[in-house]
Amino acid sequence: MMKHYGGQTMIAPLQTVLVRRPDEAFGAADPALWHYTDQPYLPLAQQEHDAFVNTLLGRGVEVVYHDAPLRDRADAIFVHDPALLTDRGAIILRMGKSLRVGEEDALEMTLRRLGVPILYRLSGAATAEGGDLMWLDERTLCVGLGFRTNAAGLAQLGEALAGSGVELVPVQLPYFEGPDACLHLMSLISMVDDDLAVVYRPLLPVPFYQLLEARGVELIDVSDEEFATMGTNVLALGPRDCLMLDHNHETRAALEAAGCRVTVYRGDELSLKAEGGATCLTRAILRETTD
């Protein structure tokens, strides 16, 4: 029987992905409370999301909707964060942003409905969000430690992955704009191939930069201007096959010069106002691997 979940990778061909269409909670979001740049206009946000989904469908990706009830959770459209998918099942995380607590239970319900086994669930004081968890390869999970993911979360991820052969690499994140802002590890980097990543170098911790260099990962630098518009937030649909926000022309050109196919989506309401790009809007359920 073919496996319908898994893929410990950021870049293998995307087969099945989970999304959540913007709802009333997103449209009613108080920008000051949610740290948005402005209040999203729901009808346009929904149009942008529908177009985003159609792009995925047009590339042969199976799209599944996460529609479990989630009242007053504006950030719930960013389905990447409440869980991590592994080859042995899902790890249900604990949100570091207090306003997002409760999303974990709803996403677990959806994953169970899809037949994805629950491998582990973070508990107690542990916090971890998906945006801080990046597969460098199938046996290396980089874990950003900052305001959203803490040391207890790192320790419990180690328990969840014990015996799997996965090495956890802690990456200390900078203070940057403080606890209210969203700075995940993947705010600074997106893998687009085994040996190619888009990065914002000024905020990369030196040991992490040195690890990438030692692994032979070529870095495409995002400018200050395009870092502000999430130029680093690139979803790999496959190796060197990228989906990203349409505003970041310099980053797109650099990716194309590196041999990447680049598809863009419009996210004025969906992404730019709410601090979440293409990766944040998706939770990969299955990526094709050679195993």
UniProtKB/TrEMBL annotation:
Matching SUPFAM superfamilies: Pentein
Top-rank taxon, per record:
Bacteria
A single GO molecular-function term is: arginine deiminase activity
For the biological process aspect of GO, one term held by this record is: L-arginine deiminase pathway
User: Which Gene3D superfamilies does this entry report, sorted A to Z?
Assistant: L-arginine/glycine Amidinotransferase, Chain A (3.75.10.10)
Tell me the Pfam families matching this sequence: DDAH_eukar (PF19420)
Note the PANTHER family from the entry: ARGININE DEIMINASE
Q: What is this protein called?
A: Amidinotransferase
